[in-house]
């Protein structure tokens, strides 16, 4: 039902009543020009984060990078097919790798907190604590290398 409501909303152009005259006039512009603005905005927000965190040694700092990275990737997903596919993939793939690394580190951080909270009542969790620390350390090295590679990316748009 949700999909049908969305299709109805799009086809009957009910969304136009929510736009100002200036915004409606922007709809007549070629989408590629608008997409370049979106991509520039997302990349300009992400790039300083990448530069700031390229030598990160603590997994807690990775969470600062997650949302700007996800925003850039989602923006590229929306409009990336307007550009050369090979260039788009060359730019996107290292960012996807970095996003996955950030997600894994955030999951390990959560797992570490759970183990710490339950360590007093379950002493056998101590073995898991060292495993988590080892995984965090090796993943931090990989994420740091990925971040450095992403800093060197040249936009495809």
What report would you give on this structure?
This protein is mainly α and 157 residues long. The chain has one domain. The chain has 6 helices and no strands. Helix 4 runs antiparallel to helix 5. It is elongated, with a radius of gyration of 21 Å. 13% of the residues are buried.
**What characterizes the major β-sheet?**
none
Class from helix and strand fractions: mainly alpha
Backbone CA Rg: 21 Å
As residue ranges, the low-confidence spans are none
Mean pLDDT: 87
Assign a percent range to the helix content.
over 70%
Domain tally = 1
DSSP strand content: under 5%
Please provide the ordered H/E string of secondary-structure elements: HHHHHH
Shape verdict: elongated
What is the count of β-strands? 0
- Terminal CA distance reads 37 Å
Any key phrases for this structure?
single chain, 157 residues, mainly alpha, 6 helices
Compact description:
This protein is mainly alpha-helical. The chain has helices at 2-11, 21-26, 31-53, 62-79, 85-118, 126-151.
């Amino acid at each position: 039902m949700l999909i049908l409501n969305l299709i109805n909303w799009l086809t009957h152009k009910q969304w136009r009543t929510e736009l100002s005259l200036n915004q409606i006039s922007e709809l007549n512009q070629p989408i590629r020009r608008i997409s370049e603005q979106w991509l520039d905005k997302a990349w300009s927000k992400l790039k300083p984060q990448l530069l700031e965190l390229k030598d990160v040694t603590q997994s807690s700092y990775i969470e600062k990078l997650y949302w700007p990275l996800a925003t850039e990737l989602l923006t590229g997903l929306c409009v990336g097919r307007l550009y050369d596919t090979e260039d788009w993939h060359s730019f996107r793939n290292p960012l996807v790798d970095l996003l996955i690394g950030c997600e894994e580190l955030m999951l390990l951080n959560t797992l570490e907190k759970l183990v710490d909270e339950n360590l007093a009542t379950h002493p056998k969790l101590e073995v898991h604590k060292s495993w988590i620390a080892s995984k965090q350390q090796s993943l931090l090295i990989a994420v740091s290398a990925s971040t450095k590679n992403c800093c060197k990316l040249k936009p495809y748009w």
